[in-house]
Amino acid sequence: MPDIVLTTLNAKYVHAAFGLRYLMANLGELQSRACIAEFDINQRPLDIAEQLLARNPRIIGFGIYIWNVSPTTEVVAAIKKVRPDIVVVLGGPEVSYETEGQKIVELADYVITGEGDLKFAEVCAELLKAGETRPALPKIIPAELPDFSRLTLPYELYTEDDVAHRIIYVEASRGCPFTCEFCLSSLDIPVRQVPMPALLEHLQRLLDRGVKQFKFVDRTFNLNVNVSKTILEFFLARYQSGLFFHFEMIPDRLPEALREVIAAFPPGALQFEVGIQTFNEEVGGLIKRRQNYERMEDNFRFLRNQTGVHIHADLIVGLPGETLESFAAGFDRLVSFGPQEIQVGILKRLRGTPIVRHDDTFKMVYNPHPPYEILQNRLVDFATMQKLRRFARYWDLVGNSGNFIESTPLIWREGSPFEGFMRWSEWLHAKIGRTDSIALTRLMELLFEFLTVEIRQEARLVAPKLWNDYRRGGRHDKPAFLKDYLPEDESKPEPKNRVALPKRQARHLV
Ligand code: SF4
Questions:
Q1: What is the residue with the minimal CA distance to atom 2 of ligand 1?
Q2: With a cut of 50, which residues of the chain have pLDDT below it?
Q3: Alpha helices of 148-224 — where are they, by DSSP H?
Q4: Distances (CA, A) of 491 to 266, 316, 476, 486, 487
Q5: Does the beta carbon of 326 lie inside 6 Å of ligand 1?
Q6: 180, 218, 252: which to mutate for ligand 1, most atoms within 8 A of CB?
Q7: How far apart (Å, rounded) are the C-alpha atoms in residues 395 and 413?
Q8: How many angstroms separate the alpha carbon of residue 347 from the centre of ligand 1?
Q9: Which tens digit of pLDDT belongs to each residue from 237-296?
Q10: Which of 13, 172, 251, 310 has its CA 20 to 30 A from that of 296?
Q11: What are the backbone dihedrals phi and psi of residue 57, each rounded to the nearest 5 degrees, phi first?
């Protein structure tokens, strides 16, 4: 039985907990007395508590994030009721700021704030040494920013099962030099770089073990051009079909040296998450996010026209100073850049972020429950915010999914993508009253009805596009609602070479 259990509730099974592996790798001689137990937020809190208690540990370390704080509070409450002697230590971004008044913090014995990679080991050593008595530790224990030269990298801790079935997270740096007020990473200055030789050695070992998908968690992968170029060249030299690399990039920094190596990757091998958040310069100034929009546009055109990069671009709804009109204009501008995916995120009030300084001026009202999304502000009322929330969800199902690549632009044709999609979004919601659990064929049928009845496009022109979209996912049975508008004697299409990429990205590529 281990003395220490490291645990967290991941958002999904495929997300292997990177933070826990860092803690485990840096436990030193305590590592042999510890184990990792991962769960996901779809499991019942009491079942999780039961499994943790069955290991009979002396210490349980929980990783707390915005997506798991509510169910984890239930898990901790149950454990402390049944076994109050088990020491509960919390860590993670959700308990690193504004700890006062948090239910889960009240229930826990200790909270390590900040990057706890080394501090967790120190705290465990003290707790185990003290035995039955409690050591003289404060409840809230701030961790000093650890230097990478002192950290053991955790990649050996990915199991064969992780390699085969889960997303493998890696990092080349921590922190971000920018100061966007809504973002926790803006508090992480200075940026620290993982020593390159050690990182490349680990990446090689992961490749040798058969890892196909790498997700870099660096907040600004292209900040240091030499580092990003070295890593990209490393992967390019070892590229094999089916490899997939995800990076978060700042959109207005893509010097020629990087462009060359990016353009050399085959289509679909790279995914860039590109945060734009707003096209409104006044809003950018208010939230201390300054970007060069001309350079950004030029970079987008380069990526779309001269590379096979899959672009996932982010915009945020509800920022202080952003009106419905300015958001709509930004959305339309982004659509014109042609990214494969646009994530319309709803502003969250993350603990510790300086965005709160706008609360009074812009009458920002946030949901008190995680993930603390904005409900309304001075410029966008609650009803409009709800419409935008639905818009975001339906955009994900239709615009981003890769299931409607040819038919999505029919929703707005020559007009404003935002206005057209908002009309479809409200029509769809009035029809079905929900934003989830919609079968793909049903969604397609509803889109066909919207396009041909509601906005009166010709069925014989719309049907082939929907039919192409339908087949893109590998289906060949003609849906009844399309049959009358498609040629009867159409021969079966040649089966497409399936691409060994994540499903959504593969559909965009086909
Ligand atoms: S939003 Fe991106 S650029 Fe801005 S502080 Fe956060 S990580 Fe850095």
A1: 219
A2: none
A3: 160-165, 196-208
A4: 31, 45, 11, 12, 10
A5: no
A6: 180
A7: 16
A8: 14
A9: 999 999 999 999 998 899 999 999 999 999 999 999 999 999 999 999 999 999 999 999
A10: 172
A11: -80, 170
